[in-house]
Design goal:
With 218 residues, the chain is an alpha/beta fold. The protein folds into two domains: 146 residues, HAD superfamily/HAD-like (Rossmann fold, 3-Layer(aba) Sandwich); 64 residues, DNA polymerase, domain 1 (Orthogonal Bundle). It contains eight helices and eight strands; from the N terminus they run βββαααααβαβαβαββ. The chain is globular. It binds magnesium ion (MG). The site of magnesium ion has 6 residues, from loops.
Length: 218
């Protein structure tokens, strides 16, 4: 088990760690996320009959405003999230872009708390990505968008469902994510939070430059 400073300066034990997947377990800007973004842009272009440039700009805007492009699309055009995930699954295989990462494996294996993935991606894609990185066996479970009822982070509801499934008090759960808005509901529910990477963060979550340094925060 990992130990660290909890709220109010008391020491609390971390029993479970929730890792985001994309751009948390692998580097931001990797070829995989570029391929995913291209597939989402293609879906937006097709669904809304937009040229590529406009579709790509809309994808970025919806992601920025809603935390997940699919959330914005649902409001904009009554898009069915399953359709977007199916569309992307046909076009992107994480195995084409990710390779086994022995350093990541060593760092994750050294973390004693139970490890889970909590991602807005689909279950199949997530399993493919974890397998490609060579770390699938280190995770006790994957909370993917199907588990979340297609209500992606930062919708607060799936965070409650994840806590219920874990049956661990929120103060003993650490959430690790590269996207600051995704950490806000976790903190509001009493979870510990850790921001990975360099995105601007108005909430001031504890931060590490990469997932390889999560152990330093425990
Ligand atoms: Mg991410």
């Amino acid at each position: 088990m990992g130990w660290g400073a909890g709220r109010g300066g008391c020491i609390s034990m971390v029993e479970a760690i929730l890792f985001d997947l994309d751009e948390t377990l692998y580097a931001p800007g990797a070829l995989l996320i570029q391929a995913v973004d291209r597939a989402i842009t293609a879906f937006v272009a097709q669904r809304l009959s937009l040229d590529w440039k406009r579709a790509d700009a809309l994808r970025v805007r919806l992601w920025t405003e809603h935390g997940a492009t699919v959330r914005g699309l649902q409001m904009l055009c009554d898009c069915e999230p399953r359709d977007l995930h199916a569309f992307c699954a046909k076009r992107v295989d994480p195995a084409d872009y990710l390779a086994p990462d022995p350093t990541l494996r060593t760092c994750l294996a050294a973390l004693a708390p139970a490890k889970y993935v909590f991602t807005n991606a689909a279950q199949r894609y997530s399993r493919q990505a974890l397998t490609a990185l060579g770390v699938a066996d280190l995770f006790r479970g994957v909370f993917a968008v199907e588990f979340m009822g297609y209500r992606p982070k930062p919708d607060p509801l799936p965070y409650r469902w994840v806590l219920d499934a874990l049956a661990v008090a929120p103060e003993h759960v650490l959430m690790v994510d590269d996207n600051p808005p995704n950490l806000r509901p976790a903190a509001q529910l009493g979870m510990r939070t850790l921001l990975v990477g360099s995105r601007p963060d108005p909430d001031g979550h504890p931060r590490v430059p990469s997932v390889l340094e999560v152990s330093h925060a425990l």
